[in-house]
């Protein structure tokens, strides 16, 4: 019987020998980097070894390993980095090489869990994981620079190019992932046949069944919550009016966009009967109001306001990611995400979205610098970018750990309303 990607995890002797040889090379180079104090080489080697050992640990077999081709490719960036002429070149190679680790992780969740990914989603997943790995490495290096007084991350521009290289390489690796599996047309992207999980069963398995809505958990009456929503909307109307009166394009665009977001739950509830309780509407309104007033006045005067709004915004992004994957899971036979992996997916979704957002802001800065035009988004240096990533991660963890129960009713309703839509069904 021919070797398939899944069987490579379950005991081919020659595959295991070659894979363990690649791990040994990575260990050697990692120890060499540790002695030389090369931060990124150490991070890369440690990540590769950790990921490569997962099959052996989970399956409790020395023969269980990644396909040797994947492990071998993961060694290449380290070998290239050894001969790179300077720090910047080595960093660029290693961050781009992180895509091979993202590919390895995707193969592992495919072979070792019940996850099922259709091809387009698999490509997106590899890209998101690559961006998340790069963000994690950059954060750890930034913290190390602060503690040790070093400057491994020299500037915000260099960090952004590292994140761009990782994201683009992740997209390429995702496409390679798709092409790799096209050699095995009879094998789905899943380690075992799964029938899918109904919403109520999912809720029980994810331990989010029977949770009270957010409006009942808040220490405020429903009437007070509704009054706060209207008050915050009036605040954004005031900012919008002021922006119009002084011809402040940035204030007008931000206030108008944020005000429109607060009415999205109302439109969805009235037109599609999606059950947004008052607590959820208040949560959304508070988040966008804080961003609106920050863009209008506070961001330029208070560093901590910026750090407060980012984790709150990240909770909204995480909620969107959660609803999206649950809808796809319910309606598309080619997609299945086990309840135990859902919080992890939410964190990866938010962390990668944060990277994509920072790349977008960087792009706006480039355009502004070349054209002289005022842009709605801008970066403010290395510390600004890195704290954004850190606080985005905090928000992702919060919503993944404690926020999912409050989204169950909304998710169920969205799933029901989309039943029969061509975008959700084949």
What does this protein look like?
The chain is mainly alpha-helical and 426 residues long. The protein has 2 domains: 7-181, no CATH class; 199-417, no CATH class. It has helices at 13-36, 39-59, 68-83, 87-112, 119-148, 156-181, 199-205, 214-217, 222-245, 249-272, 278-298, 303-331, 342-371, 382-403, 408-417. It is globular.
| Number of DSSP E strands | 0
Please give the largest β-sheet: none
Count of the separate structural domains: 2
Q: Structural class, from secondary structure content? A: mainly alpha
Put simply, the count of helices is 15
Uncertain segments of ≥5 residues (pLDDT<50)? 185-208
Oligomer: single chain
Mean pLDDT: 80
User: What is the percent of helical residues?
Assistant: over 70%
CA radius of gyration = 23 Å
Could you say which overall geometry the principal axes of the C-alpha atoms support? globular
* H and E order: HHHHHHHHHHHHHHH
Strand content: under 5%
Roughly how many Å apart are the termini?
Answer: 32 Å
List the defining traits of the structure above.
426 residues, globular
Write the layout of secondary structure elements.
Elements: H1 13-36, H2 39-59, H3 68-83, H4 87-112, H5 119-148, H6 156-181, H7 199-205, H8 214-217, H9 222-245, H10 249-272, H11 278-298, H12 303-331, H13 342-371, H14 382-403, H15 408-417
Helix pairs in contact: 1-2, 1-3, 2-3, 2-4, 3-4, 4-5, 4-6, 5-6, 5-13, 6-13, 9-10, 9-11, 10-11, 11-12, 12-13, 12-14, 12-15, 13-14
């Amino acid at each position: 019987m021919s070797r398939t990607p899944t069987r490579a995890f379950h005991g081919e002797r020659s595959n295991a020998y070659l894979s363990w040889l690649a791990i040994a090379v990575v260990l050697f180079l990692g120890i060499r980097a540790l002695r030389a104090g090369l931060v990124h080489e150490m991070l890369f080697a440690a990540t590769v070894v950790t990921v490569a050992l997962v099959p052996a640990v989970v399956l409790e077999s020395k023969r269980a390993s990644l396909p040797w081709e994947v492990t071998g490719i993961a060694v290449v960036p380290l070998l290239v980095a050894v001969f790179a002429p300077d720090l910047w070149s080595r960093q660029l190679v290693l961050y781009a090489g992180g895509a091979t680790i993202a590919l390895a992780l995707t193969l592992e969740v495919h072979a070792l869990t019940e996850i099922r990914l259709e091809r387009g989603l698999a490509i997106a997943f590899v890209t998101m994981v690559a961006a998340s790995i790069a963000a994690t490495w950059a954060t750890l290096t930034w913290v190390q620079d602060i503690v040790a007084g070093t400057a491994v991350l020299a500037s915000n521009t260099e960090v952004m190019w590292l994140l761009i290289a990782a994201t683009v390489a992740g997209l390429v690796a995702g496409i390679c992932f798709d092409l790799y599996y096209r050699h095995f047309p009879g094998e789905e992207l899943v380690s075992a046949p799964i029938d899918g999980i109904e919403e109520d069963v999912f809720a029980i398995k994810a331990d989010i069944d029977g949770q009270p809505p957010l409006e009942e958990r808040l220490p405020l009456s429903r009437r007070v919550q509704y009054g706060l929503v209207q008050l915050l909307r009036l605040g954004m109307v005031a900012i919008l009016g002021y922006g119009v009166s002084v011809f402040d394009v940035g204030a007008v665009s931000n206030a108008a966009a944020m005000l429109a977001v607060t009415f999205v739950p109302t439109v969805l509830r009235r037109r599609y009967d999606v059950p947004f309780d008052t607590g959820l509407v208040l949560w959304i309104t508070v988040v966008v109001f804080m961003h609106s007033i920050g863009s209008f006045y506070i961001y330029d005067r208070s560093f901590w306001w910026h750090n407060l709004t980012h984790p709150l915004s990240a909770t909204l992004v995480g909620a969107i990611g959660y609803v999206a994957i649950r809808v796809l899971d319910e309606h598309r036979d080619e997609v299945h995400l086990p309840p135990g992996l859902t919080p992890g997916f939410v964190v990866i979704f938010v962390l990668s979205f944060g990277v994509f957002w920072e790349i977008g802001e960087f792009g706006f800065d480039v355009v502004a610098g070349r054209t002289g035009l005022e842009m709605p988004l801008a970066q403010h240096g290395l510390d600004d970018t890195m704290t954004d990533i850190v606080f985005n991660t905090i928000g992702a963890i919060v919503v993944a750990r404690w926020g999912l129960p409050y989204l169950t009713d909304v998710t169920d309703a969205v799933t029901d309303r989309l039943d029969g839509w061509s975008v959700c069904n084949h």
